[in-house]
Amino acid sequence: xxxxxxxxxxxxxxxxxxxxxxxxxxxxxxxxxxTLPAGQRxxxxxxxxxxxxxxxxxxxxxxxxxxxAIVDLGWTCTAFAYLFDRQRRHLLADWSxxxxxxxxAGVSDAPLADAHAWFRGPRARLALRHQADDSLLLNVRxxxxxxxxxxxxxxxxxxxxxxxxxxxxxxxxxxxxSALPVRGWAQAEGQRFELDDAWAAVDASNGLLARNTAWRxxxxxxxxxxxxxxxxxFGAQENVLWLDGQPVALGAARFExxxxxxxxxxxxxxEDRLLDLVFTPEGARSADRNLGVAASHYIQPIGTFTGTVxxxxxxxxxxxxxxxxxxxxxxxxx
Length: 334
Fold this sequence. Notes:
The chain has 1 helix and 26 strands. It is mostly beta strands.
């Protein structure tokens, strides 16, 4: 079996036949569904209720892990930001807030170059904006967490772009990076965390999704090895391994864990035997919400992955030790 290299990213997520389904390497300027053929284009109200966009950033080093997201759900918006102290194994900051899309938050259709996501609420300001030097400037000001960081896109490994169909929806697309160098700092509970030795990953997602959506996800990155795995609403479409900066397509993912005991070890693997890792949680952020018309169950453990990966089934296994990242178990009615 040859190395499953990814083809170059298309110019757009929609072509003459409809969504350009596939898994690709490289940047795309915009994720725009406006040019869907007439027979595949939903009405205005359906789009308003089902068009979901988000930018998520995870970054960490030996001292801390930080996760944050700005999410436009069409009919509402939300944002969260947390800082997990890895030495104390404690969430020093865990902030979240809802708002009105367009008035309090916005997520651009540009995933990396020209990206702009923002949230403004009571005593809260979050922004992720592309800069002229091909970096992403990340700013967070909340009562729980302050952060200034610059994520370097200029020398990154080829990012992954996935475009695919959705049961009960129309289509989804996501652009994900592997390890991005970070410069900056964070502060929570009076403690300052230097981030100049941290690595970051960006998830920019945009889709016309079903009302009920569920997934399991795992993501971990450093320059020599990184991966993104998803099991659920998007199938195996976004499963990718980065080895020494080269993205390799992965098969369907398996997540073996106790849903009632998510802080016990997880095993994550792929059916093609290219990835087989044990995840050991150090802590977690979780949220359960039920608003009647909308609900979500979410847990994102933070920890390390140990095991083996390989580019081809016939290759010798390559050991992975103490790779910092996250897993996630998420169900939404949105």
